[in-house]
User: Fold this.
Amino acid sequence: MAGRAQPSGPAGSGGGAPGLLPLLLLLLSAAAIIPRGDGQNLVTEDVTVVEGDVATISCRVKNSDDSVIQLLNPNRQTIYFRDFRPLKDSRFQLVNFSNSELRVSLTNVSISDEGRYFCQLYTDPPQEIYTTITVLVPPRNLVIDIQKETAVEGEEIELNCTAMASRPATTIRWFKGNKELTGKSEVEQWSDMYTVTSQLLLKVGREDDGVPVICLVDHPAVKDLQTQRYLEVMYKPQVRVSQNYPLQGLTREGEPLELTCTAFGKPQPTDMRWLRVDDEMPQHVVVSGSNLLISNLNKTDNGTYRCEASNAVGKSHADYMLFVYDPPTTIPPPTTTTTTTTTIPTTITDTTATTEPAVHGFTQLPNSAEELDYGDLSDSRAGEEGAIRSVDHAVVGGVVAVVVFAMLCLLIILGRYFARHKGTYFTHEAKGADDAADADTAIINAEGGQNNSEEKKEYFI
Assistant:
């Protein structure tokens, strides 16, 4: 800081006798002709203080030669001259005085104390430097104003946060839980003070119920100044259907089924009912509050069962799709049968297995697709395939046995037939030829001769 000469004495003191003025002018002229001092200078720092706190002003001298140090206020009134305080303000107190430093404290600082304070050193030529005191004023009040105390899910609400009478103007930040949001701020100035208002538009959902909305202030005079409001959001029920029995596996014919409906909402749902979608509820179904019980399942129970719940906000539902499967069946254990005939020994092995039909059971959670028990389905299908293979082997063995038996019967019939037609046959074609000398004579002498040969023909069929 540039210094400037101060020819006068301590500010606020008397003007002095008229005869002293020519002497002072003479001394100043002599000082201008014969310079004094050996490079002395003043050092000080600016001060920033919060209203109501203590500000400390320090005037320090380098290369001191015991020159006089004094401190003046913004109105050029002397606060301290050496260790003497001409100004009648007890808030100023001497902290330290020496040839090289004058340190003064100012308690209970107010806005009126803000300005430039001057350090002067009576050297030849005189030196002067100033320090600036800046007074910070924190916000007087920090208030959140919410448009609606209770909001409905899906609505957009307005929140306003106001920081009043601060210096300088504050910066307002918004948080919902740990997430920072963006608001819109307006600044108003009243004299030397500033009032800041920030507006936040927020669309709320059921997940926001009970979550704090925080208004936080960034200001050099304060740290961690904030206020908060908890959101209250009303929402329609959230419904879920759970299967109590059977706990696992499939819903089979003849077995019981028990379902439970649970609903959560704000306010808590008071109206809850069961119905069957696109059909009437079977008469044997028992509904008790949130529970549905079918003691003996059958195929007519197939369908979608719905649980509905409602509150002041709205209505929701969850569906359960029921499919009833056949009851499990038991096939006798594997057996081995050996059959022997007198002609061809035949061994027939009949192997069977015990299995259950493929059955599915599933519970549909609220508004979700069905879920099948694929593990049980795979095991059942494997058992069916084994049973089918065993039945095929038994059928093939039976067919082979019947064919063999038929062939044996055919062989027996043919044998008996050929046995009945076996022997020697006699004809009368050569009657009268026994006494012939040779074959030709026998033919000629045969009964009837050659003329009757056509009549004596025999046909064997």
User: Anything to note?
Assistant: The longest helix spans residues 374-420. The CA atoms of residues 123 and 193 lie 41 Å apart. Residues 1-39, 337-384, 449-456 have pLDDT under 50 and may be disordered.
